[in-house]
Amino acid sequence: MAVNLPPQYHEAEAEYKKGRTPEEKLVGLRKMWVILPKHKASEKVQVILKTKISELSDEIEAAKSGPKKVAPGTFKIPKQGAGQIIFLGGPNGGKSSLLRKLTRATPEVAPYPFTTREPVPGMMDWEDVRLQLIDLPPITADFYETYVTDFTRTADAAALIVDLGDDDGPFAVETVLEQLKGRKRILVDKPPESDDDPTVFHVKTVVIANKIDAEGATDRLDILKEMLGDRFPIHTVSTEKGDGVEGLRKLFFDRLGLIRVYGKLPGKQADMTSPFTIPVGGTVMDFAEKVHSELAEGLKAAKVWGSAQFDGQTVKRDHVLQERDVVELSM
Ligand SMILES: Nc1nc2c(ncn2[C@@H]2O[C@H](COP(=O)(O)OP(=O)(O)OP(=O)(O)O)[C@@H](O)[C@H]2O)c(=O)[nH]1
Ligand SMILES: [Mg+2]
């Protein structure tokens, strides 16, 4: 979709391009953000602009706090699968144990805090889709790996893991939320439609209260519910005993806000083994873009099995697809 940009936008863009320092560039970008019309057609431009603004303001902040311990990009993990979910939490809550349960990854697990020192990715299967889960080092009042902020920008959602085996567990999580908030990362159940401040990122989050098998865990769960219950639904599990763990697979997929759509070639059976995933509310056009961007450009119509009135009905490019629809694109 074309975006009509007012002339002031291009003036601000010129200012951004001429900027010699990150600060000067940020001034231009912020002006572009204010002028940019915020509607569906400009969604992609909004995302690009927001990411640039956030990266630049993080860079300016980081420069203020002295040389980096870890070079930028050292721990970058390429996205794989239908979506990426990062594990956040205080120390010793069971993040690495959970990654071991849900994927084939084998991060170190130990009965003492600060075991995980680096991000560890793993692929989780749910039915016919795969999601990427990333275990991260813990966050405390005194310990914060700066690259965690980068992961919160790029991830599609977060899992916040609470230690119900320790009296400090619920409070440790409050500290995690504060540490992230200090870096303009707000963990939420449902993100707002749009952000006024482009440097603030809302991260869709699932709260997982782990170690429900531990002695005293139910009392700590009550405390946790009092602290966070009105902000997040809380999912209780025991990674060690397995209680509630398998249910997390669907929960994680649902949190990504995606639907599965299957492709079909003319005259052939649909390929029901490997779906494409598009956002809830996505159209035939969004599907075509996932299959191949060139396909989307030349797309005339499509046939849909599932959400159409009858099987194989011809629909327009803007037809909204539903979970498990089958689509045949016609050029
Ligand atoms: N009782 C009980 N213990 C658990 C459970 N899940 C994990 N643990 C134990 O909790 C300890 C910490 O587990 P980890 O998976 O290393 O925790 P972590 O959150 O990755 O810890 P850091 O890397 O230090 O942040 C280990 O001794 C685990 O065996 C559980 O459901 N119940
Ligand atoms: Mg760990």
Question: TL;DR?
Answer:
With 331 residues, the chain is α/β, with parallel strands linked by helices. The protein has helices spanning 7-18, 22-35, 43-64, 95-102, 147-154, 169-181, 217-228, 247-255, 284-291, 293-297, and strands at 84-89, 120-126, 129-135, 157-163, 185-188, 201-210, 234-236, 258-263, 276-279, 301-305, 313-315, 325-330. Strands 1, 2, 3, 4, 5, 6 and 7 form a seven-stranded mixed β-sheet that branches. It has a five-stranded mixed β-sheet with strand order 9-8-12-10-11.
What would you say this structure looks like, in words?
- Strands 1, 2, 3, 4, 5, 6 and 7 form a seven-stranded mixed sheet that branches.
- The chain starts with 6 loop residues before the first helix and ends with a strand.
- It is 34% helix and 21% strand.
- The chain has helices at 7-18, 22-35, 43-64, 95-102, 147-154, 169-181, 217-228, 247-255, 284-291, 293-297, and strands at 84-89, 120-126, 129-135, 157-163, 185-188, 201-210, 234-236, 258-263, 276-279, 301-305, 313-315, 325-330.
- It is built from ten helices and twelve strands.
- The model has no long low-confidence stretch (mean pLDDT 92).
- β2 (120-126) and β3 form a beta hairpin.
- The radius of gyration is 22 Å and the shape is globular.
- It folds into three domains: 7-64, no CATH class; 84-255, 3-Layer(aba) Sandwich (Rossmann fold), CATH 3.40.50.300; 258-330, Beta-grasp domain (Ubiquitin-like (UB roll)).
- By secondary structure, it is α/β, with parallel strands linked by helices.
- α1 packs antiparallel against α2 and α6 (169-181) runs parallel beside α7.
- Magnesium ion binds at residues 95-96, 107, 115-116, 135.
- Guanosine-5'-triphosphate (GTP) binds at residues 89, 91-97, 109-111, 113-116, 138, 165, 210-211, 213-214, 238-240.
